[in-house]
Specification:
About 55% of the residues lie in helices and about 15% in strands. It is α/β, with parallel strands linked by helices. The protein binds erythose-4-phosphate. Erythose-4-phosphate binds next to helix 7. This is Probable transaldolase.
Length: about 220
C-alpha cells in the first residue's frame, strides 16, 4: 500500500520523505489555506521534495474552467496530479485529462457508485473519504470494501486512495481490504511507527547491554 501525506506543510513532508516511506502528497484548498502559502509556490516546493504524485485541486465548478485551471497546474511539475471533485463536470474533466495522459485524482467520493463512475472516467486515483463518513454515522471502511469488490470485478485500473484518514486503525483496515493508497495527516503516519512494547523492549535491551560494558563502535 502506498503512503501519501495529506498536508501542505513542507517541514512535515520533508520529515516523512526522509523516512524513505513517502510515496506522494495530497493537498486540498483547505490544506493550502491552512499553510498560509501561495498555492502555486507551495505546490512547486512539494513536487521538489517527492517524486511521487502530488495532488493539486481545481476550484472551478464547470468543465471548461476546470480544464483551464488544470492546464496551469500541470505545468508546475511532471508529478502533479490534478484533483477534481466527483461531479459531472469533474468527471468530464477527468476523462479529458486522463485521455491526454495526465494523472487525475477524483476527490470527495462518498459512494461506491460514484467510485464506479470515476473508474469509467479513467481516474488514476479515486479518493473515498472514510473519516467524514464515520463523522456522519456510517462506517467509512465499508465503502472501501465495496469499491475494492467492484474494481476487482471489472479489473479497473483506478487506484483506491483512502482519504480523510483520522487514525491508525483506518490505515490497518485499508491494508486489510487491499486499498492501493492511503493519505493521512503526518501525525497519523508517524503514529504508525509507535508501539509501547517497542519502547519498553529497547529500554530493557539497553539496560542489559550496559551491564556488559561493551560497545559496538
Ligand atoms: C484527501 O485528499 C483530502 O485532502 C483529505 O483526506 C480530507 O480529509 P479531512 O476529512 O480530514 O478534511
Amino acid at each position: 500500500m502506498k503512503f501519501f501525506a495529506d498536508t501542505a506543510d513542507l517541514d512535515d513532508i520533508r520529515e516523512l520523505a526522509a523516512t524513505g516511506l513517502l510515496d506522494g502528497v495530497t493537498t486540498n484548498p483547505s490544506l493550502i489555506a491552512k499553510s498560509g502559502r501561495d498555492f502555486m509556490e507551495v505546490t512547486r516546493e512539494i513536487c521538489g521534495i517527492t517524486d511521487g504524485p502530488v495532488s493539486a485541486e481545481v476550484v472551478a465548478l464547470d468543465h471548461e474552467t476546470m480544464m483551464k485551471e488544470a492546464e496551469v497546474l500541470r505545468k508546475i511539475a511532471d508529478n502533479v496530479c490534478i484533483k477534481v471533485p466527483l461531479t459531472v463536470d469533474g468527471l468530464k474533466t477527468c476523462k479529458a485529462l486522463t485521455d491526454d495522459g495526465t494523472m487525475v485524482n477524483v476527490t470527495l467520493c462518498f459512494s461506491a457508485n460514484q467510485a464506479l463512475l470515476a473508474a469509467k472516467a479513467g481516474a488514476t486515483f479515486v479518493s473515498p473519504f472514510v473519516g467524514r463518513h464515520d463523522d456522519n454515522g456510517t462506517d467509512g471502511m465499508d465503502l472501501i470494501a465495496d469499491i475494492r469488490l467492484i474494481y476487482d470485478n471489472y479489473d479497473f485500473g483506478t487506484q483506491i486512495l483512502v482519504a480523510s484518514v483520522r487514525h491508525v486503525v483506518h490505515v490497518l483496515e485499508s491494508a486489510r481490504i487491499g486499498a492501493d493508497v492511503m493519505t493521512a495527516p503526518p501525525k497519523v503516519i508517524m503514529a504508525l511507527f509507535k508501539h509501547v512494547l517497542t519502547d519498553k523492549g529497547i529500554e530493557g535491551f539497553l539496560k542489559d547491554w550496559e551491564t556488559t560494558g561493551q560497545s559496538i563502535l
